[in-house]
Amino acid sequence: MRNLILSATLVTASLFGMAAQAEPIEAGKQYVELNKPVQVAKPGKIEVVELFWYGCPHCYKFESTLNPWVEQLPEDVNFVRIPAMFGGLWNLHGQMFITLDAMKVEPKVHTAVFDAIHEQGKKLATPEEMAEFLAGQGVDKEKFLSTYNSFAVKGLVEKAKKLAVAYQISGVPVLIVNGKYRFDITSSGGPQQALQVADQLISKERAAQ
Prior knowledge:
single chain; about 210 residues; alpha+beta; Glutaredoxin; five-stranded mixed beta sheet; 9 helices; disordered N terminus
């Protein structure tokens, strides 16, 4: 009898959870619809952008929820990370991310950078300090520095800054779906809820195609 009661309880809880997840979202509550849509990087695909900062503790905590979700995204969804740059260390870390992205390093290197800042207390406040740390992660020091200071990377930095302005962001982490819808962990109700909002907006955009 105890097992039957437990099973019934679990089924009820499961159904309740499914109902909660399926609850429709609404502009102005869980997300904001941008007045002027921003062009996506890959036309024909539904884009999900995360704006973040390596130094942001909320971004760091969000990684463990976000990354498994990203790995399961269908083929018609393109996920993009863009560093938010509000000056100072934000800009330096943003340029570091863009450099590593241009060098096509393994995802574990980005994880190592997050860990270094939040678990080991490293600031990584200069290109030289970054290069020294990254050398321990298998990244060629001289190649990193030359790429970091390259014209191409500086151009990508300016592009990232313009996108952040176009998305009208004021903090991180924040997600943008298809250049139209902006939301964050707070407006969504939590990290997992933010991804549920993303899923519903992805479905909305898919249905509109």
